[in-house]
Design goal:
- The chain is mainly beta.
- It folds into two domains: about 100 residues, Immunoglobulin-like (Sandwich); about 375 residues, Neuraminidase (6 Propeller), CATH 2.120.10.10.
- It has no helices and 40 strands.
- Strands 2, 3, 31, 32 and 33 form a five-stranded antiparallel sheet that branches.
- A hairpin with a 4-residue loop joins β37 and β38.
Length: about 475
Amino acid sequence: MNKFIFSALILIFFVTDAQSQISWNNTIDVSPNTFGNLHPRIAIDGNNNPMILWGQSSTKVWFSKLSGAAFITPVQLNPSTIPAFSISWAGSDIASHGDTVYAVFKENPEATGHVYIVHSYDGGINFSAPVQVDNIADSISSFPTIATNDDGNPIVGFMKCNSGYTDFRWVVSKSADFGNTFSADVKASGFSGGENCECCPGTIVCDGSTVAMLYRDNLNNIRDTWAGISTDGANTFAGGINIDQNNWMLMSCPSTGPDGIIIDDTLYSVFMSTPAANDLIYWSKASISNLQSAGAMELTGMFTGLTQQNYPRMASHYNAAAIVWKQVVSSKSQLAIYFTSDIHSGFNNPFDTIAAGPLNEIVNADVVMLNGKIHVAWQDNASGTVKYKSGTYSYAENIKPVSEKLLLNVYPNPSSTVLTIEIPSSLQSLYAYEIYDINGKWIKTVWRNSFKQQIDISDLADGIYLLQPWACYWKPEPQKFIIHHYK
């Protein structure tokens, strides 16, 4: 039976007008506490279903996804012969592009273990055997982080150091065949003249050909947060941005890293810093083309009862954005979230608290958002489980001169006979889809007849194809429409 994986991106123009209020659903457990709960990370499949990755006792990496009202029984992604590094503040990572899903993990022990990736082409139903990402020779690798490019290929960042635990730097390696092989890594850090903060995880983010590797720097014990910037799809990282500028002097590594998003020419980022007496969350926005940052801004600042904030994570859809973090208020732990309908205007509304408990109950969290829905997962130490909560917000799509990419809703993924394509009402002017093979040879034209349409693809051979949407008054940039043979 032929099976394919589909994803599509087209260039449109829009802004959003979202309500600031989020309507939250009930909290649910992802799995029993016998599966552990370390450092959860979250992504979504092509139908906006959450998929969650977490670790257990630095040996196992677990995966589960929501099916209906409950999460499926967790699946171990690493074989017992490759134990995986996991602790509360660092571990494995997950990224998705429709129903193409990637998970990366670091093998124990650190000094001799490698970075591995597994992939799924059917929304997490089946995963491949691990593929080695790093080519470290006599070096040591750690803290893998992953993003996907517009084609659905993975880009992996990880920290590297010499065998004597010197020359800490962040490097990036990418795949052109959907996680089966990887290029030699390229250096993505060191722009301050120093090296990396050796125990702080990083985050890689991608938008089009722009890739940012966010990390905490170490310049003579100044622990500012930086971003290495590539504008050629992670082939080279020619410049860096000091997105922090707090000049935090610390003699040891704080073991906490940054996160960020890219919208147009702006890199938005979040991180913890302590230039004064308390650990606080800061956010920053920086021009990618000019490699200039406006500097760090307090997200909430100090308020009554607050003693600590840490482990921020960030997500966006259109111009709407959300930040989650852990904080301690009046000797109680809280999971807080800041939401804005327009990230360009900053965060001006009060933050919301979506979970609270005793001092050490809530440890860290992750967030992802798409099509008016926010998904949050966090490590809960009172129950020993990973918790999950979702919320919805209202937004409207308007045609305005703000460019962004839109992921068409294409399913089932993979498919063997019929493909369904759903498009938003803002794409009224789109009138046809043309399918090409990977070499650019025209295969067929399908006229759009509704906002939700089925296409017969039973006559197509296994392989990778291209999709060209056509519209009345504008021409979208041609992008790959990936049909990937699932084995």
